[in-house]
Amino acid sequence: MKIYEKAPAKINLMLDVMRKREDGFHEVEMIMTMVDLADRLELEELPRDTIIISSQAGYIPLDEKNLAFQAARLIKERYDVRKGVYIHLDKKIPVAAGLAGGSSDAAAALRGLNRLWQLNIPEDELCRLGAELGSDVPFCVTGGTAIARGRGEKLEQISNPPQCWVVLAKPPINVSTADVYGKLRANELKSHPSTQDMVSAIERGSFSDICAGLGNVLENVTLDLYPEVLQLKESMQKLGADGVLMSGSGPTVFGLVSKEAKLPRIYNGLRGFCKEVYVVRMLT
Ligand SMILES: C[C@@](CO)(OP(=O)(O)O)[C@H](O)COP(=O)(O)OP(=O)(O)OC[C@H]1O[C@@H](n2ccc(N)nc2=O)[C@H](O)[C@@H]1O
Ligand SMILES: Nc1ncnc2c1ncn2[C@@H]1O[C@H](COP(=O)(O)OP(=O)(O)O)[C@@H](O)[C@H]1O
User: Fold this and answer.
1) Containing H/E element for 128?
2) ipTM over cut 0.95
């Protein structure tokens, strides 16, 4: 039997860091939502007790470093599953982009194997397993729109933002999340975006207030390292996006756009100097 599972990308509408913790992770407060740019996983049971990963993307690891492999190994160990699985990853989400592509693949593997092997693992337990694989994996298990606290694994679901267009532009650089957190001086931050204002804007369905409330304290760290991300941000603003922010640790910049008529100008303007531009919808 073959089953399929969609693994969408996330964006951070707001990302604040409270402090660095003793364990090296940072205590965060983020608002995350999913967009309609997704990898697709094909899962098939194998007669042999093994995990095989393949992908058309030549630039991701296919061994035990792959997060989908780690998800399969974890579920096999915890639930004593002595069956094998072949997982094909059809990658569409750019890698190391701040869009949680790997985390979403891991989450989709957890959901998919739960179905394939009929394990009946409840969603909160899948989230706990996901947290062992990465801070963003629990959110990728549930999807929707959520406030994420702790190191990202404590989730509070909120309503979805009003529907809009999302333009994603990824410059040709790879950003290490650990590097960006490592360079952040959390106790020297001069201003913090407001979770409450963003939650209230989303709950009121106010697109303009959502755009006004966008904020990410990791942005300045990445902009200092890679000035081309700032150039991308400024271009997207000039081309008419209603709200613009870097997602996660970057380098992808997203623009929220309410009017479809604005899209050709933004897309064509960005494509002039950035190869990877995607126009998608929020997943609501
Ligand atoms: C910044 C964010 C925002 O959503 O996303 P990305 O830019 O990676 O997509 C996340 O916090 C990233 O989550 P994720 O990519 O799952 O991180 P992990 O694999 O758990 O951790 C990678 C490294 O980032 C640092 N890290 C991560 C999360 C956190 N709350 N504090 C940290 O300091 C740690 O150095 C850790 O070793
Ligand atoms: N299934 C996967 N898809 C993409 N990257 C993966 C995967 N498994 C492991 N990785 C590794 O995880 C790292 C971060 O990838 P990704 O999740 O795309 O970035 P980000 O956390 O910035 O959104 C990359 O260096 C990549 O080699």
Assistant:
1) helix 123-131
2) yes
